[in-house]
Write the structure tokens for this entry.
Amino acid sequence: MLKGLITLLLLWLLREREDYGYALVVRLQEAGLTDIAEGTVYPALARCERSGWVEPHYVPSERGPARKYYRLTKAGRGELTRSLGSWNHLAALVSSITTKGT
Amino acid sequence: MSIDLTPLFGFSLLGFLGITMVSGLLALHLKNRVPGLGVLDSLRAVVYLTQYDAALEYHGLRSRERRSRVDELRADFAESAADGGASAAIHRLGPPRVLASEVAGARMVPSWSRGTLWLAIAVGVGALVLATSTSAFLAGVDSVASGGEATWSTWFVTMTATTDPTGSSTFAVELQLVALVLLLVPFLLGARVWRLWTGNGADASWSHQGVGGAQP
């Protein structure tokens, strides 16, 4: 479930603007996911890329290799909408169950 | 006056192997270096990225995609290392084998290039041992009377030196076929050939889950 959540969050962030791996880690940490690590984000980005939800493009760097940026694809927008709907439904369900008084 | 150059053969081979290893390590460093880091941090980064690259190969990623994945980490590493150094950045990435398994998402396959490397090392070591043994053998041949024959055999190698009354000599080395077959062992071990059948077996038993650090 957590893997799916990370995917959802990454797609959401990329919907706002394209970015590269480490920058996405920082954005997630600044949003409150302080325990998130690069070792979680890079595999999630790789899965998104294999699924066609994001596409990479490279920005040349003055030093070292070109930086790999990700941007959302049309399929990614569709997946984001679907995932967000599922999450909202699940969140509402959990809230409903846990707030029912005894 | 004659000079026996045979001992030099062994040392030359050793020197050649040494130069080859140093050149290989230097090439790896240049391929996986991360600009903007200090010496120690740079070395840690190179070691990690090299292990990551090797692990990606074990997951069957083609050279181009492997390079892309490794370069992605290289491009971001210096920025990540600004927060706590290379060791902290490496800790957050997790073990290279685990990261490669998660990134590649593919079953593990034999690495024939790794097997070839092990084979080359085995051949080199075997040649060095053979050369050293040859040197010792030829030194003993000097004591053989003119017109005699000396034979020395060990494992799967037989050496024969013959001198005739005129002083000329011949030298022959016979290598049994089983020695060549045995050289397949380091090749198959290095390639992890059992992955043809086991795929994602014990080698990839860790799975990186969740939002936490990279520990399984």
Q: What stands out?
A: Confidence is low (pLDDT under 50) at residues 201-216 of chain B. The interface with chain A takes residues 34-36, 68-69, 71-76, 78-80, 89, 92-94, 98-99, 102-105, 208-214 of chain B (CB under 8 Å). The first strand of chain B starts at residue 149 and ends at 154. The two ends of chain B are 69 Å apart (CA to CA).
